[in-house]
UniProtKB/TrEMBL annotation:
Keywords: Oxidoreductase. Residues 12-477 form the Aldehyde dehydrogenase domain. It comes from Cupriavidus basilensis. This is Aldehyde dehydrogenase. The keyword Oxidoreductase applies. It comes from the Bacteria. Belongs to the aldehyde dehydrogenase family. It holds the Pfam family Aldedh. The active site is at E250. The lineage of its organism: Bacteria, Pseudomonadati, Pseudomonadota, Betaproteobacteria, Burkholderiales. InterPro entries: Ald_DH/histidinol_DH (IPR016161), Ald_DH_C (IPR016163), Ald_DH_CS_CYS (IPR016160), Ald_DH_CS_GLU (IPR029510), Ald_DH_N (IPR016162), Aldehyde_DH_dom (IPR015590). Gene3D superfamilies: Aldehyde Dehydrogenase, Chain A, domain 1 (3.40.605.10), Aldehyde Dehydrogenase, Chain A, domain 2 (3.40.309.10).
Amino acid sequence: MKRYQMFINNEWVDAASGQWFESIEPYSGEVWAEIPKGGAEDVEKAVQAAKAALDAPAWRDLTATQRGALLRRLADLVSTNVARLAETEQRDNGKLIAEVSGQVQNVAQWFHYYAGLADKVQGAVVPINKPGVFNYIKHEPLGVVAAITPWNSPLALTVWKMAPALAAGNTMVIKPSEYTSTSLLELAALTKEAGFPPGVVNVITGFGTDVGEPLVRHQDIAKIAFTGGDIAGQRINEIAASDFKKVTLELGGKSANIVFDDADLDQAVKGAVAGIFGAAGQTCMAGSRLLVQRNVHDLFVEMLIKVAGEAVIGDPARHETQVGPIATEAQFRKILAYIEIAKNGGARCVLGGHALTGAAYGQGQFIAPTIFTGVTNDMRIAQEEVFGPVLAVIPFDTEDDALRIANDTMFGLAAGVWTSDLHRAFYMSDRLKAGTVWVNNYRATSFTTPFGGYKRSGIGREGGVDAIKEYLQTKSVWITTKPAKANAFVLG
């Protein structure tokens, strides 16, 4: 069993408390690593290291091109260590090794993308309406950025923040979920190997009340970048607002996956399965509400039950496994509670609806892929984020009926549309209140395009050119080229 240390100022250090807590492998149920139990003293040490690095010549005086070169080196190191990083993360959160391996490969691509973007951030010369004045606009880093990241995709969702923040010239303190700290500590080691100066990247571990809240409240933090639930996001936003910290919040969803009768139903079934049973439903973009046009509803549900019912469930370290365990005991219990809420609320469980036990499931916490029909959009199972392999199927009649149902939620992260009608595809995409709309596909992301939500699904965007703007502030510079005599008491 490995005992980890925190990474502060390019050094491995124990928590000031001298305490560790256990990391449990979701499939085996075994303790496999010990994580430092950080606190406010560790937060202070990490923030001060990041603050000092911000003004140290080793980082401050790098050109944007040189920052990009560091990011490229880090990307190459990630590529070299894909297998090790993927295995570490898979053991920590129980996600499929096949998916985690792909995500780690994409991590390298994110670093490469923002390495190239680092020296493409351009200012402007403004033709001012005043004589004898030269004005230009430049973009500067915000300062010390705090990244607080979740347990479902630790590396990927951290790098969505880390790559643009570093490309923009900021320094960072990263607080991973207490359930999944190991892969980010392994990544931190690679930042040192890549040549990042001390204090530019710091990783501190521990629990929300001990580490997360002191980090959010710290007066030297310029920005919080958070991925997680909307309740936690709301709390972070409230605290950050008290001293005008900037925030990027990528929060939850109750995304509608909409199937029309003219869709390729075989492909739509695959998309519906991927949308809710991929990653055992433990993803913010899960297509947890399936809206199906009424005249194909029964047929589509029948097809869906067949495909989902044949899913290979078990050891996530095996490449043939399609559905793995629930990452934490708390989440496992929450999902089962929502299944009972749905049953008691009048929804019909037509597949699954229970936990799985037996030799194939090790000591893990597994829930069978679950499908509810007879759902109306006012039910809790249709309005609240379950974050598990639980699908609510809702019939609809017309395009506008589907839009009314899809948009009738406090969330607005994503949506899917399945149709062969191009006009319908554009009509629905224009009117869906969601930050991402997939047409005839689902759950695709890329470093080249922004991702984020409407309403309670968050603030700001991650990915693409938009993301680096989230980590910059704008400065306007006025230079007098021809001094003019003017009334000093009158605004010029």
